[in-house]
Amino acid sequence: xxxxxxxxxxxxxxxxxxxxxxxxxxxxxxxxxxxxxxxxxxxxxxxxxxxxxxxxxxxxxxxxxxxxxxxxxxxxxxxxxxxxxxxxxxxxxxxxxxxxxxxxxxxxxxxxxxxxxxxxxxxxxxxxxxxxxxxxxxxxxxxxxxxxxxxxxxxxxxxxxxxxxxxxxxxxxxxxxxxxxxxxxxxxxxxxxxxxxxxxxxxxxxxxxxxxxxxxxxxxxxxxxxxxxxxxxxxxxxxxxxxxxxxxxxxxxxxxxxxxxxxxxxxxxxxxxxxxxxxxxxxxxxxxxxxxxxxxxxxxxxxxxxxxxxxxxxxxxxxx
Length: 320
Prior knowledge:
With 320 residues, the protein is α/β, with parallel strands linked by helices. It contains 13 helices and nine strands.
């Protein structure tokens, strides 16, 4: 293994044989070479493990952790935390098993963090590619730090596989935040007044896959988790702590399957509908809210919101 690596790259792998070699090679061929690549192999049923072992045999910078049980999303978050705990570098970088890092990615991010000790985490722009590696779009990152951190309070504006951050005791992802563990991670750092930056240049080719974790769950419920992460952020800013320990993520995951969801989750759904400017969901949930909880002090307010045109909802969302 690399002696005293500057950077530890954390990669979780599950059934990624199609694109895995490109992802690993894009790290091993970096212009900056003082790193370790920590790969957590999550019980793949394809040839992923064989591919990883091939690179491990050729390059001592590759360190492999073989899991004995796949636990789905919670296991994925466990893998990220395991990678952070194992990391020996002063900086930790994320990498997904189907993306491609540009050759100077590590070099540019290390230089930025070295030269800006006030910055805790740096991301970048990214090029979108499809299954076949063809460019299909781009993500242009917000490079003004003040604007970036203000935007983060409203939506996720940092691509997770582009980030590099300083290793610090106690850093971890939370496994109840289904599909938005990265956003929750950023907001928790933001609560501690950490400073973020995005490099404008695209340092990653981000592959859009139909079977990615973020696309499997119901779209609206996914955004309810995003809204929950924001709710936790404002709890921390208000009281110094959040109510994550009381959060039942299973009830939220099954929101549309439960006949009588809690008033708290319906309000979360209503806030999500306003955030997405989704009139149909706003009307549907407002009706359910007034039916199940007619005496709730918030019921009339959301019933009123459901009658507003979209441009009013945009104003409400901007103010909130």
